[in-house]
Amino acid sequence: MKKHLMILSILLTGLVFCFGCTAETAKTNTLSVDVVYPFSQEYSESFKNGIELAAKEINEQGGILNQTIAINYNDDGNNTNTAVEVATRIGENPGFPIVIGHRSTDDVLKVGSIYNQNNKLLFAPIIASSKLNLAENEGAYLCAPSDDAMASEMVNSMAAQGIRRIAVVHTAGNTYGKDYIQKVEEHAGEAGIEIVDAVSYLPNLDYFRYYLKKWDSLGAQAIVTACVGEDITALYGYLEKTGNTRPIFASYDIEIQPYIIPQSMKSLTQVTSYFNNTATAGPEAAFIQAYQQTYGKNPDLPAAQAYMNMHLAAAAANQAQSLDVAALKKVLGENSFDTIYGSLNFDKRLIDGIPVFQKIYVNDQLVPRDNLTGGGQGSE
Fold this sequence. Notes:
Blueprint: H1 2-28, E1 30-37, H2 45-60, E2 68-75, H3 80-92, E3 98-101, H4 105-117, E4 121-124, E5 140-142, H5 147-160, E6 165-170, H6 175-191, E7 194-199, H7 205-218, E8 222-226, H8 230-241, E9 248-250, H9 263-266, E10 269-273, H10 282-295, H11 301-320, H12 325-334, E11 337-339, E12 342-347, E13 350-352, E14 357-362, E15 365-368
Parallel strand pairs: 1-2, 1-3, 3-4, 4-5, 6-7, 6-8, 8-9, 9-10
Antiparallel strand pairs: 10-14, 11-12, 12-13, 14-15
């Protein structure tokens, strides 16, 4: 009897040991991918959905280097100091060497060097800064159209509509707004469009009335805005209260999170954008359908960008067959990648090939100007 008990004890010990091995194997076969965004903000839901959908598809297709991926969500609060803390923590931890995220231009420009110093790459899915191609931002990749590409499209659209004199507004002290307006100025000069006034100060309605009188006297035909955050809401509120009738050309930030846009101003607004939420064929349409089936609603631009960037990171690693940063950089610099926007490649560290176009409001939804069916396909 004692002999049988001893054998049973040995077998049980062996099983416990094997289960421990299995758990450890499973642990090492899971690859942690860091994603950073203001996840505490309500508007981050669609971005998170895009990441989750892509991660699910990647795992169904074999993962990254045959490892299942798990997403580690990091909240930076859209705050530069917090972003630095988050980037420092991520940089010190092992895991997948491509980090996806950060919401603002200032944050990306601040933390890119932190990731680079810790032998990690940063994919920036939301910002538009062409400054990522500068030497001091090595390791950070712009995975969205650049401010130069967006400004070029905006100016060309204005020129095609016969606009020759514009007033521009951007948020004071904001890198994105300043850089975007600078690009608008460069392209406007080439297109023969004059910037009659540029302002970055929106203190109150009375002060804004002063701007309007000035713009009237200078013959401004349209308003260009690269405002962000509360300034978007303030600007549109002032425009409504003063009975604005000028066309409003807005940068894509208006599409990143919900803003209060008065109904009377929606019909005057054109937004420079790049995700075709009315696509009926091709990879964009396939993404829209998959998103609708999973979440029961239409995807927006942040969802599309999160989805594209997650798939792009996985494709780069699988093509490199390595998690070595040098190997990843080589693959990113030498190859094209199939994405929801078609085949894309990098010009140094700026992604190239995403079509940029104007959107307008139809039934309270921004849709491509030349496709007025109303956003997304499905039953919502």
